[in-house]
């Protein structure tokens, strides 16, 4: 597993399931919001706290854990007077997950006509729905896939 766990092996909810391991690492509300905000430009402790409203002690723990697991890295601020947080490649790899959650929320977590933020590309166009696709380009669903369990 990537990231420093302080020499401890994490207690996985389901050691053989990638979904469960991912949920163990980033499945709580605050961790996902920290990752979301890092993708949206938050870099300092203050940035994260202002954007999320999270209590300082909880934020400190989430930042520590996300850093220990290799999703965030601490970097020197240009002034050199403090440390900032930056997404690692592993953290950036969560982008499609965040987009998919956002799009699910747009469809299912708001009443019709209720205002919400919208994700747009650099030209200002709404980001199209993320849809998993087979090698031949056909859309995949839970009905067209299965999990191959390894012994």
From TrEMBL:
Residues 17-113 form the HTH hxlR-type domain. Transmembrane segments: none annotated. PROSITE patterns: HTH_HXLR. Signal peptide: none annotated. CDD domains: HTH_ARSR. This is Winged helix-turn-helix transcriptional regulator. Keywords: DNA-binding, Transcription, Transcription regulation.
């Amino acid at each position: 597993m990537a990231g420093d766990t302080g020499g401890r092996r994490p207690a996985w909810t389901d050691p053989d399931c990638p979904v469960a391991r991912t949920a163990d690492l980033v499945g709580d509300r605050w961790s996902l919001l920290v990752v979301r905000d890092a993708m949206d430009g938050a870099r300092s402790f203050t940035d994260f706290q202002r954007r999320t409203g999270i209590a300082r002690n909880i934020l400190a723990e989430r930042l520590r854990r996300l850093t220990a697991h290799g999703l965030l890295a601490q970097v020197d601020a240009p002034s050199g007077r403090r440390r900032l947080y930056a997404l690692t490649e592993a953290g950036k790899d969560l982008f499609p997950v965040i987009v998919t959650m956002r799009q699910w929320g747009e469809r299912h977590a708001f009443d019709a006509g209720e205002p919400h933020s919208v994700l747009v590309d650099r030209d200002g166009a709404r980001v199209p729905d993320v849809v998993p696709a087979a090698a031949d380009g056909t859309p995949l669903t839970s009905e067209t896939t299965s999990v191959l369990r390894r012994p």
